[in-house]
Amino acid sequence: MKLTIIGTGYVGLVTGTGFANLGNDVVCLDVDANKIASLEKGDVPIFEPGLEEWFRRNIKSKRLTFTTNTMDAVQSSDIILICVGTPSDPGKAADLSAVKDVAAAIGKHMNDYKVIVNKSTVPVGTAELVTNIIKENQTSDIPFDVVSNPEFLREGAAVKDFENPDRIIIGVDSDRAREMMGSLYRSMGRIGRPIMFTDIKSAEIIKYASNAMLATRISFMNQIGFLCEKTGANIKEVAKGLGLDNRIGPRFLQAGIGYGGSCFPKDVTALVSTLKEFDCDCDLFEAVHRINENQKTLAVEKLAEVLEIKDSRVGLWGISFKPKTDDIREAPSLHIARELQRRGAKVHAYDPVAIESAKKELADVEYFDNPYESVRDCDALILVTEWDEFRNVDMRAVKVLLKQQIVIDGRNIWDQKEMEELGFTYRSIGR
């Protein structure tokens, strides 16, 4: 099939490359000429395991191309997938300005029947909005269908998730669109991936509900973590006991210093905004968001209990919001670094892949390309992101390098007893 992907950010690039890898002819459209030129040269702008191999293979086969020409991209396609950003606006609702601009452009240039797919995370009712904007901008009455097909790509595992998704949700209201979307995903259906067709508004809500549920589990465990600390219980043991209940399961039950990234923070607040718009109670999700925001600087509060932060030097391990990505959007590391600086500390930082991204956001931080050098002569170490390489570091060497043997483990990756036996002043979350 001939596909146009509008937007070459994280979702657009992974989705476009993935569909090209399935044998489709894919053109990726973006208004950023410099970005398109870079992509045409073969530069992959994001770190995502497995993506570069896919990317280069499909550029070489000419199944994956890039353009800034909106008219050609719209008119040459059977299916158009909208993959533009929907960040939070000043009121914390989803900013749909890019989606609206794309819908207007599609209406202006459409030459025959198209299926237009909302892949971006958008609030309920957006398909109807896109439909109306396209009609308003059409010069003739050309038929089309708008479909909701939310993405469920986890950063750090997006290639795997594209090839083997948990589920594929497709919201349609016409047989013609259903048939075309079924053809697009037919190869995944053959390997047993569940494809669920539903109405459009249900599909739109499923995406927000999924992210809100996962965010709720995280904030739930972080709230229970405070009780564990007060009573002498161990949050990791509590999580294990909870996870053994088949009705609950073990995933997303890890206490820590909060969630970040491009999805959970903005999607929870956007859901709150939507609930308010429809006069629904939203206190549960407001609490989820509030707990998470408070959690982001908890590591600094724990450090202040054992160290005079002013004029100290603190090492941070991990800058990305999660392992296996260089994405630092809403990362707890940003809040922690800025709070340390506000209190008068100098910050040293190390991350396997996210340093260049961090340099654009964090000023007056000294960056290192080696975790051990980043803690040399520091008064304390804060573990922020649970990269695998941190699990097996030589903590005896870290102890020698630190000026004061203080470790704040924001992700509970180290054994408390072992750390204390090594002589560290060790603080973790919920233990």
Summarize the structure.
With about 425 residues, the protein is α/β, with parallel strands linked by helices.
Could you describe the 3D structure shown?
This protein is α/β, with parallel strands linked by helices and 431 residues long. It folds into three domains: 2-198, Rossmann fold (3-Layer(aba) Sandwich), CATH 3.40.50; 207-295, N-(1-d-carboxylethyl)-l-norvaline Dehydrogenase, domain 2, CATH 1.10.1040; 298-427, Rossmann fold (3-Layer(aba) Sandwich), CATH 3.40.50.720. The chain has 20 helices and 14 strands. α16 links the parallel β10 and β11. It starts with a strand and ends with a strand. The model has no long low-confidence stretch (mean pLDDT 96).
Structural features:
431 residues; alpha/beta; Rossmann fold; six-stranded parallel sheet; 20 helices; 45% helix; globular
> From the 3D coordinates, which CATH architecture of the largest domain would you assign?
3-Layer(aba) Sandwich
Helical content (DSSP H or I, runs of 4+): 40-55%
Count of individual domains: 3
Low-confidence stretches: none
Biggest sheet: strands, sense, closure? 6 strands, parallel
Form type: globular
> In the CATH scheme, what's the topology name of the largest domain?
Rossmann fold
Structural class of the secondary elements?
Answer: alpha/beta
Would you state the CATH class of the largest domain?
Alpha Beta
User: What is the spatial order of strands in the main beta sheet?
Assistant: 3-2-1-4-5-6
The average pLDDT is 96
